[in-house]
Amino acid sequence: MAPGFGRAITSLPVRLLCGAFGLFLLGVAIYSGFKGTEAPDRNVTLTLLFVTAWLGFPLLGVLVGNLFPAFNPWNAVAAPAGWAWRRVAGKAPAHLAYPERLGRWPAVIGLFLFVWMELIYGEGSGVAVGVSPEAVAQAAVFYSIYTLVMTGLFGREAWFRNGEIFSVYFGMFGSLGKFEVRGRELGIRRFLSGATTWPAGIAGSVALVITSIGTTTFDGASEGVFKDGIQWLIDRFADIGFNPTAATRTSMTVFMLLSVTIVALVYLGGVRGMSTVPGAPDRPTLWRSFGHVLIPIAFAYLLAHYFSLFFFQEQAQFTYLLSDPLGTGTTDLFGTASYGVNYNAISNQVIWYVQVAALVCGHVAGLVLAHDKAITIWKDYRTAARSQYWMLAVMVAFTCFGLFLLSVSNS
Fold it and tell me: Is the pTM of this model over 0.85?
């Protein structure tokens, strides 16, 4: 890559422009949530945050690299605030030392809560389709305040690296991509290679990947495998006096926790198996050492489950939602407010092929990463290969479960 091009891409004017654009889009989402229609499918808020951003940045991360830092709206506020402080005070603001043991656990909890709000909060509350735009706007304001406070306490670098949900989550998927920023330069690396250094020994990193897989699994299973169990538990909570909303939310929360637990146990089974191979380190070390191999699995589950949603909702995003973001029917900024989603633009067969291909490729990538890591632990090639029989079993289990969820949801 030409050095001049790399420096131009990471230059201050480009970073300022991208940051301002990210802040503008967050502002649009919040404003639309408060002032727009309460119909979730006509208000830009839900599609912009839960589809375009939530699914778009992981996809771009794998195809290119982690682009979120450039568009991070909270960094767009914190960076100039820090600069202004240094200009006035003559020194950098003092920050608390980030607790090493805390690691990425704030991002793990935040990821769970974010998905909980998307999938569970609106259930049983009378909202026709998921959570209401106003509730999402309120949550966005609260989270923005929380993020800026944490950034002020611990500094931008520490908080965005460890605690801020979206920086950590999108960075996880971005570690799979070929491009990375090195200081003020744009560099190229081998595909998947960034995943090996992403955990960096930071506490909670493996838990974040597991939570990503588990919450996506729950979304697919809640209308299939878990459906009867969720309803049974709702009835039991109702029997002991829970109102319908509380019963539904509590039951679904239990099953989402169960999904995360199942994923953790499958991975733990692979770790325990590897620990029986001669020369293996202790189990906590194996748990941390192989956590990055699950990142392609997390992306495979995400793409397989949400591909059709992303494909169709992006049509809405760039047609009627773009022209009429409030969904009130009073504006048509780009002349596309009367457009609709073309559900015939892609066939169910093609969607199925994409889903299966995503699962297969993701699990193959996971095996490649696991094999490369095994070679660094067990110097003998045969012993390293033997250790990977267990990870192969883990990958096969995830593949079969993913295909099973797809078959149930498509039946």
Answer: yes
